[in-house]
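Renewal narrative, Specific Aim 1. Our central claim is that a sequence can be written position by position from structural information alone. The example that follows is taken directly from our test logs and has not been curated for this report. It begins with the structure tokens describing the chain, in the order in which they were read.
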């Protein structure tokens, strides 16, 4: 697919332009903030304009190599270089308020060396009265400057038209990408989420660092496994809720946005992968994150990561320990499969995709009402259950929805139905109709 990459110094408005271009249903697709350096990862999304679809890529701030201060900035530059190498078109975004700076000239020089098609776009021109700001930028070496305001939308349609002119006519709007399975990778900070995604992609798309909280945004990337595409959503580490209730500061504000973006990533997904640190075991926060996934009724896979750090002669004992821990601490998602994996060694990572396919098959499964009531007739028609002195009878059942499969059970007395009754019916449905890994939803109604 035709790919457009937005490049520029920190804080010139790249993420704001990215958000406007993708017109996402999310309130904030990429985290934006007036402080430089908030965007650390590259962010991918598919958008469309004038019946043509293309990929747009938001990048972290681009700066000369001699200004690199730490490993994270070094990895940011590597990511940007990789995104540029994949680009069909580059938008070099400039800041009209700050004027043309030496870093802009250095960036323009490096972009020209790629031989890629480039649009020179001057941002923060909110209305025609500010058009005079663009004259300083002609010295960058182009006569074709596009003035815009990513915030107000001034000049935006002209920019999009320029992009569309460059997309081949054969690149027409297609629905082939609409049904890509969406997988959100979630967990506490520093459990290896980004490392797992990088291993699956075979490319270093996400910044990996031993510093907790490196990923602040929800980052999307397409992964292909045996010809089938999957959308991987890397989310910020979800910390204890009390962390986000601290006195607001600039850092905590961005962290709070990242937290809600992580929740939105789960909401968008079909399946969530909960990553747990094998060295630390299942802690209280892991339970809470699993609870968030269960509340949203998404498919779930549990990955016990960093298995390479477990001594060889300890692995059998540890595997049994985690099997027991999952039953004890994550009993409310007892349908979720689990794997012991190593993102570093790539051990058992490819087993994820068959599990995702199995979950999604069950997640969309429909069972005929006749089959459901045949089950009820065989198992429950003669069963009368007592509950606090009340007689409870089950009459019939029907499936009313999928994603997740949702069933309505009609009874004589709704108030007499307790949780163990629902679990009994759930067990019948799972065993009879092979709902092994998918969440299912059971609702009780009283027959008039």
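The sequence written for that structure reads:
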């Amino acid at each position: 697919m035709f790919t457009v990459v937005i490049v520029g110094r920190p804080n010139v408005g790249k993420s704001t332009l990215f958000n406007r271009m993708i017109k996402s249903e999310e309130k904030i697709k990429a985290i934006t903030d007036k402080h430089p350096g908030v965007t650390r990862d590259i962010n991918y999304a598919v958008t469309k304009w004038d019946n043509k679809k293309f990929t747009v890529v938001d990048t972290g701030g681009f700066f000369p190599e001699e200004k690199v201060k730490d490993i994270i900035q070094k990895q940011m530059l590597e990511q940007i270089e990789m995104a540029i190498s994949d680009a069909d078109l580059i938008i070099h975004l400039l800041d009209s308020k700050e004027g043309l700076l030496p870093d802009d000239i250095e960036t323009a020089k490096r972009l020209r060396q790629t031989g890629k098609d480039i649009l020179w776009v001057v941002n923060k021109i909110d209305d025609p009265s500010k058009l005079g700001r663009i004259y300083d930028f002609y010295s960058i070496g182009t006569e074709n400057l596009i003035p815009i305001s990513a915030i107000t939308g001034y000049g935006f349609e002209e920019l999009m038209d320029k992009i569309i002119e460059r997309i081949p006519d054969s690149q027409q709007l297609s629905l082939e990408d609409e049904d890509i399975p969406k997988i959100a990778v979630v967990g506490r900070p520093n459990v290896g989420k980004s490392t797992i995604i990088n291993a699956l992609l075979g490319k270093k798309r996400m910044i990996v660092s031993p510093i907790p909280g490196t990923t602040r945004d929800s980052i999307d990337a397409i992964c292909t496994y045996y010809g089938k595409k999957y959308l991987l959503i890397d989310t910020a580490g979800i910390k204890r809720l009390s962390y986000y209730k601290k006195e607001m500061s600039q850092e905590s504000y961005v962290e709070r946005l990242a937290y809600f973006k992580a929740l939105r990533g789960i909401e968008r997904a079909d399946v969530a992968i909960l990553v747990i640190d094998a060295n630390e075991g299942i802690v209280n926060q892991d339970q809470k994150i699993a609870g968030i996934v269960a509340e949203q009724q998404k498919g779930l896979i549990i990955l016990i990561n960093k298995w390479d750090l477990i001594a060889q002669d300890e692995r059998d004992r540890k595997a049994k320990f985690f099997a027991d821990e999952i039953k004890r601490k994550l009993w409310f998602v007892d349908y979720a499969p689990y794997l012991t994996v190593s993102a570093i060694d790539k051990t058992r990572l490819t087993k994820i995709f068959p599990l995702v396919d199995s979950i999604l098959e069950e997640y969309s499964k429909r069972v005929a009402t006749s089959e459901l009531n045949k089950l009820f007739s065989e198992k429950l028609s003669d069963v009368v259950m007592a509950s606090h002195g009340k007689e409870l009878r089950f009459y019939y059942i029907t499936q009313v929805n999928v994603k997740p499969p949702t069933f309505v059970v009609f009874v004589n007395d709704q108030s007499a139905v307790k949780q163990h009754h629902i679990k009994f019916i759930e067990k019948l449905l799972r065993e009879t109709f092979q709902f092994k890994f998918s969440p299912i939803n059971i609702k009780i109604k009283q027959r008039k």
